[in-house]
User: Fold this.
Amino acid sequence: MSARRLALRVLPERLAICRLEPDAPLPGWLFHDEARLFSLTRTPEETSIVCPEADVPPSIARVASGYRALALRGPFALDSVGVLAALTTPLAAAQIPVFALSTWDTDLLLVRESDLDRALAALAPHAAIETPPA
Assistant:
């Protein structure tokens, strides 16, 4: 990865991470016109969903709530090396767990909202950080 300073923005939404069985039907509740951020990943072992907390119906049994997303200002070429490592290394040193998502253009790191201030402090030497208005 080049020596350019990374730019992050803290997204305002509180997010949840859900786990469904691998053969669960695609969740219709996830797909609506107001949906601005969601991720759906299916593997032979599971189906994982990241979405706003408010979108998760009470019938979903395995939910981890209270996450915030740190979105890298991309785009980054698909062959970029070390982008996530530049951010996960200082977070690991600060003992802050992350849940990573990647898209074609960028990456997002989810941290628990209770760890957000510590995460921002750990990342401040490595990235310019934009926070949402209060």
Notes: The mean pLDDT is 92. The CA atoms of residues 29 and 58 lie 11 Å apart. Strands lie at 6-10, 15-20, 39-42, 47-52, 62-72, 99-102, 107-112, 127-130. Residues 83-93 form the longest helix (11 residues).
